[in-house]
Amino acid sequence: MLMGKRFFGLFGRKRRQIGQNNGLPKAIAFVDYEHWFISMEKLHHMKPNIQAWFNDLKKKCNIVEVIFFGDFSKFREKETETKRIRTFTNKIIDTYNPDMHYKKDYTDFIILDNIYQKALSYHEAELFIIFSGDGHFSSAAAFLRNFCNKKVGVYGVKNCISRNLKNSADWTVEVPLENEENLPVYDMIFTSLKTTMERGNKQPTFMKTVECVSGKYDISATKVKSCVADLISQGYIIQTRETTKQREPIRVLRPDWKKISEDGIWMNA
Asked: Which residue among 137, 161, 180 closes a domain?
């Protein structure tokens, strides 16, 4: 057994998006969650949107297995992150090495070991997905393509992917995806609505919310309007016709907190 290798659970509730019979190539995904989480936080001030990644992935392949790797001792909210991952898979390998005499990060080594093991043992897999930006994986990608006749797809954080790794893969996708770029503004809107209602305003309106978010976070009112409209069209916020205490008609924003939570669209909830 590899040093520092620990599984968080072998059995669990039914995971979403895995094992669909959609006619696409069978694939195994290896996710360097340290790269994803830390790079997104530092470069884009966002958390990983695992749901958006799965949604994009299922358009390209039929995932039969997905494994997340990381030294979770580096995460401020370890339990929160592992819980988010378990919504999609229970295959989480903690690469933490308790031996203080060794300062080397074992995450890459353990991922590479798993990639080679799967390449030799699971011949049905047609596509290998590597989620990382590290150039160390370019040799593994070349091995998979040239000696195993496998396709290789790479996901990585924008502005944090090795050129060698890109060149070694059949295709590369950078995150955040286009449809994720509004997530920080969505967070501001949800936070504003929750705070406003907790402070006693039970009837937040479209324009008042736009003014509040735009003023507090110093962003364009036009951008906030567009994002509120998007959330309404996607069903995360419902506009209802109500009356004020003065019996005046008013259109109120009512967030669907259950849908927001289930879809993980409020990243800082």
From this structure: 180
